Amino acid sequence: MWNGAQFRMKWKPDPNHEKGEIHMKKELCLFLALLLFLPSLSLAANEPIELPIGDYDTDKLTVAVYDNYYAAASYADPLPVLEWVEKRTGIQIDWDVTVPSQYDEIMRVRLAAGQDLPDIVQVPGGLKEVYKYAQQGILLPLDDLIREYAPNLAKLIWEDMPELGRIYTAPDGHIYHIAQNYDGGNKVEVKGLLLRTDWLDTLGLEQPVTADDWYHVLKAFKEGDPNGNGLADEIPMTAFSTGNGLEEYGYLATAFNLAAPVTKYIDVDGVAVNQYEQPGFKDFLSFLNKLYSEGLLDPQYSTGDEAKLDAMCAKDIVGASAHYATKTDLWAGTAAKAGNPNSAKAEYHLMLSPANPDGSIRIISRALTGFCYGITRDCKDPIKAIKWLDYIYGSDEGRDTLLYGLEGLTYTLDADGNKVWMDNIASNPDGLSIATALRSVGAFPAQFTNRTVEFYKMIVSKSAAEEGEILQKYMIQPFPQVMGLEDELDRIASLNADIETYENEMIQKFVMGQVPLTEFDTFIQTVKAMGGDELTQIYQDQLDRYYQK
Questions:
Q1: Which end of the chain is more exposed for a tag (fewer CB within 10 A), N or C?
Q2: Would the pTM count as exceeding 0.90?
Q3: What is the dihedral of CA 3, 6, 8, 10, to 10 degrees?
Q4: pLDDT for 42 beyond 60
Q5: So what's the pLDDT on residue 155?
Q6: Which residues contact 28 (CB under 8 A, 6 or more apart)?
Q7: 543-549 — which CB contacts under 8 Å span 24+ positions?
Q8: Peptide bond into 261 cis (omega under 30)
Q9: How far is CA 122 from CA 150, 439, 468, in A?
């Protein structure tokens, strides 16, 4: 069988050596051609699909999306899994990519200009902005195209998972987008508090259950030198802090009768409830302020990012954080690669959020769908575009190829036909997690993925999956995914331009002690005066429309 590790080395020749590039391309073409004729990769879609969809030499689609989360492997570069899909479908893809942090801002400007649009676009702002661009004529209606040319998409959204169809359907009754399907991930790879359990063992501590337990554990992490290097360098808790940080540190808020993470609005029996106005919110901010003032939270509370978080964990100094379960393996792996004295025993485990005084815990599940994709009015061949989407998203083969990669490159099959990761994925020599190793060759992209339970069970460790099952018992549904009307979106944007900025600044100041919590009531009243009640009513109107649909 072809050796994936060897391919990995050949795939990255010295860019200054033209001969190396030519040799690489020849080998890739031979590899792709051979794979097309392997019996084990015969089409296994839900419905028959006539492949190829187009003529590879002449047919091309331009697709504008976030670039790869693994920055070293841009979609704009040749990646073997995506190259294989191009050959299989007969459609070349011109990946029009932007780094994730800048994509929405840049794409909004391009869509506003309305010229030279890509064939397929990741809609900036996600579901809430889909209908705005539909009303502007930028996105084409897809329902008739799906019915006639995309049998797998049709079966998925109208038969197998009608909730997807409900989310996709715009107020005018048409469908203008498809989106990532997180159903599999929501059942396996949950997000929650991650804790260094080996540090608990080193210090003789029990797993924390209450808010007070978490305080004492974090204090012991700060004072007890659990990494054993003789330095007071431990940061008891940090996070990939976005906005005001409450979507990460908010997993501690369950102790104060709030739903974690602390998103502003939750749906309680059809009522849009603003969590910032709930009695426990002030107490929660007081708790975070206590942790921060005693040095138990990252001193750079409001400046976190993903790269910083991973780097800090690699230094063997982080005791706790909040993230998805796959990070438990990544952070232990990166710590081990860093060569720290105690890194070999680094163990992060998913912990249950602290209970409130009544013993209850509410953790908000991730939404069913994520990034949204539509076909623009400039698309030269919408039929080929919807057929391509049907293959990569709806068909068994296309879905599995995007998720798992290719046999002989990322996995092999055991005697029972089950996929088994190859060493370059399961034990990546560069210390990449399974998810990141897959992304390094073009698999498991954020884009266009219809994620299955089976896939997530292969990328999450057994312990993380078992811990996730425990957390599932405490999950509640997120605020329903509602498509905003254009006038609603304009008003929300107008109100939030000031409200969100003020709220985020004040919440950070409360946590960091720059404004005393005696000013909390004034904070709430100021938000109301800025139009907070009107904003809540708009979300209530959307909620009413969702339940009436």
A1: N
A2: no
A3: -130
A4: no
A5: 94
A6: 11, 78, 80, 83
A7: 543/267, 543/270, 543/271, 543/272, 543/479, 543/480, 543/482, 544/270, 545/171, 545/482, 546/480, 546/482, 547/270, 547/480, 549/166, 549/169
A8: yes
A9: 19, 18, 30
Burial of 53 (0-12, 13-18, 19+ CB in 10 A): buried
Vertex 187 angle, CA 184 and 193, to 5°: 120
Per residue in 427-474, pLDDT (tens digit) is 988 878 898 999 999 999 988 888 888 998 898 888 888 898 899 899
DSSP string, 394-454: ISHHHHHHHHH--BTTTEEE-TTS-EEE-HHHHT-TT---HHHHHHHTT-S-STT-B--HH
Dist. CA 361–CA 355, nearest whole Å: 5
323, 437 in Cβ contact below 8 A? no
Tokens representing 409 are 């490159």
More confident residue, 35 or 280: 280
Residue 194 pLDDT grade (very low, low, confident, very high; cuts 50, 70, 90): very high
Phi and psi angles of residue 111, each rounded to the nearest 5 degrees, phi first: -70, -35
The HSE-up count of residue 101 (CA atoms within 13 Å, CB side) is: 6
Residue 44 one-letter amino acid: A
